[in-house]
């Protein structure tokens, strides 16, 4: 079993506990799961030693089961999707969950991401592409930036429409006013950003939220500076 799947099960239970929700009462409902996961390290390592596999190996390393295993555990019948958009996978999963709830296709959703680093060959590839910081630090938006540093982690959000959460007396930590995604299109290189496209996305989301950019007081950005 990919340790990412195991950790996601723990995070799902913790998210429900934090929200004060009884998992048993949600069983059989239209709860949805959206998971961002781009790391396939465990499957790669398993493939290098096929003799170590068994009847559970395929399901244990299948990317789709990062989400499906949670739905199976909780007996949720809503959409269950694993999203891979590289570094933006978790945020894309949250965006898709929000859109899913806004269209009332589900009343509850778990969304987030997971990333565990197991395969050293990936480091070799990123290093060869001069993406990793030789100084071992991310210096986003700085003229001294010399690359980025990879990291592990996982997190899930338990999402509901605000009116429903208030009506049910749920603990509300924050409100997602708006979200959005787009693509850089053609740039000088597949992994190189497009500042104009990213600016257009920000303006679009600010417009959807009805918020002026100068009212934003805190930003959390991608470690590479995008």
UniProtKB/TrEMBL annotation:
Biological processes per GO annotation: fatty acid biosynthetic process
Alphabetized Pfam families for the sequence: ketoacyl-synt (PF00109), Ketoacyl-synt_C (PF02801)
MF terms in GO: 3-oxoacyl-[acyl-carrier-protein] synthase activity; fatty acid synthase activity
UniProt entry keywords in alphabetical sequence: Acyltransferase, Phosphopantetheine, Phosphoprotein, Transferase
UniProt-listed PROSITE patterns: KS3_1, KS3_2
Domain called Ketosynthase family 3 (KS3): residue spans: 1-226
Name the UniProt record assigns to this protein: Type I ketosynthase
């Amino acid at each position: 079993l990919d340790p990412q799947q195991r950790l996601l099960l723990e995070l799902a239970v913790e998210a429900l506990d934090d929200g004060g929700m009884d998992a048993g009462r949600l069983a059989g409902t239209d709860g949805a799961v959206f998971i961002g996961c781009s790391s396939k390290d465990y499957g790669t390592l398993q493939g290098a030693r096929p003799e170590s596999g068994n009847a559970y190996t395929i399901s244990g390393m299948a990317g789709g089961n990062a989400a499906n295993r949670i739905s199976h555990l909780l007996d949720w019948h809503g959409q269950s999707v694993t999203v891979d958009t590289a570094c933006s996978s978790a945020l894309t999963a949250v965006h898709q969950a929000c859109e899913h709830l806004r269209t009332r296709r589900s009343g509850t959703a778990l969304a987030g991401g997971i990333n565990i680093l197991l395969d050293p060959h990936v480091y070799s590839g990123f290093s060869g592409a001069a993406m990793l910081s030789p100084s071992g630090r991310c210096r986003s938006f700085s003229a001294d930036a010399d690359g980025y540093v990879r990291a592990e982690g996982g997190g899930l959000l338990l999402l509901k429409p605000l009116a429903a959460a208030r009506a049910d007396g749920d603990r509300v930590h924050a409100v997602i006013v708006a979200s959005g995604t787009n693509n850089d299109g053609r740039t000088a290189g597949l992994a190189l950003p497009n500042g104009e496209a990213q600016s257009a996305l920000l303006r679009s989301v600010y417009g959807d939220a009805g918020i002026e950019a100068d009212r934003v007081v805190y930003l959390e950005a991608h470690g590479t500076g995008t």
